[in-house]
């Protein structure tokens, strides 16, 4: 289902069964010492591939450039200053997919900074207002789910999702032992601005301490997210 690995006949066959193309996007961003820079795109790609495997459709290669958020100045983060470049690539992609006869395109973001979410929402809305027959839906990894870790940045949630798809990229030994160096958060606020302090043991992490993550929970969390994506895509196809 990965389009970069498919031959023309394989792609035609896949879309004849389910005319859906997923467009995973993320960012190239610091996620503390235990996680890779490409996490957002890796998670978006993993979830859309899982959904395509279960539901049908095909998945474009992930886009590793993103915009927005509060980590722009962190080490090795490469963030676009605005949406212009990314919007142009996504809109051209949608235009070509429609010309090629695709019925539904799904922009799925693993990076959920407000600026990025506003961008994909406005792209989808602008598309819907035009004279287009292909349906476009915009989704992100922070979609509401019951009984799951809260979406975060480099915390338990993102670490758990990534461990379903790229477990070898995670190395919690790069963080100090939670017993020896626990996270000190005023009023227990793991999303507070104090986490931007480089001296904090979880510098740049916003959310539950990733040292508490349980690998055994990865499959169930990824499946819940995939099922939520599938539900949205199924509704679009049924309309």
From TrEMBL:
Stored SUPFAM superfamilies: Creatininase (SSF102215)
Cofactor field: Zn(2+)
Segments passing through the bilayer: none
Pfam families found in the cross-reference section: Creatininase
InterPro entries: Creatininase-like_sf, Creatininase/forma_Hydrolase
GO molecular function: hydrolase activity, acting on carbon-nitrogen (but not peptide) bonds, in linear amides; metal ion binding
GO biological process, one term: riboflavin biosynthetic process
Top-level taxonomic group: Bacteria
UniProt keywords, alphabetically: Hydrolase, Metal-binding, Zinc
Similarity comment text for this entry: Belongs to the creatininase superfamily.
Protein name: Creatininase family protein
Organism of provenance: Aquiluna borgnonia
Lineage, opening ranks: Bacteria, Bacillati, Actinomycetota, Actinomycetes, Micrococcales
């Amino acid at each position: 289902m990965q389009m970069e690995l498919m031959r023309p006949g394989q792609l035609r066959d896949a879309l004849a069964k389910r005319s859906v193309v997923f467009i995973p996007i993320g960012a190239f961003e610091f996620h503390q010492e235990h996680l890779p820079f490409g996490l957002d795109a890796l998670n978006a790609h993993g979830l859309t591939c899982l959904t395509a495997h279960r539901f049908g459709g095909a998945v474009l290669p992930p886009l590793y450039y993103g915009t927005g958020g509060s980590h722009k100045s962190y080490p090795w983060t490469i963030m676009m200053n605005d949406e212009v470049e990314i919007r142009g690539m996504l809109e051209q992609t949608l235009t070509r997919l429609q010309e090629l006869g695709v019925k539904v395109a799904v922009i799925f973001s693993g990076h959920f900074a407000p600026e990025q979410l506003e961008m994909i929402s406005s792209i989808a809305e602008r598309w819907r207002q035009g004279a287009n027959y292909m349906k476009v839906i915009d989704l992100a990894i922070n979609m509401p789910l019951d009984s799951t870790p809260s979406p975060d940045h480099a915390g338990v949630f993102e670490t758990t999702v990534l461990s379903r798809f790229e477990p070898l990229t995670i190395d919690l030994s790069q963080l100090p032992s939670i017993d020896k160096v626990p996270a000190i958060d005023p009023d227990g606020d793991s999303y507070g601005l104090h986490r931007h302090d480089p001296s904090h043991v979880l510098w740049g992490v916003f959310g539950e301490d990733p040292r508490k993550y349980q690998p055994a929970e990865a499959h169930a969390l990824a499946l819940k997210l995939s099922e939520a994506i599938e539900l949205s895509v199924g509704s679009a196809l049924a309309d």
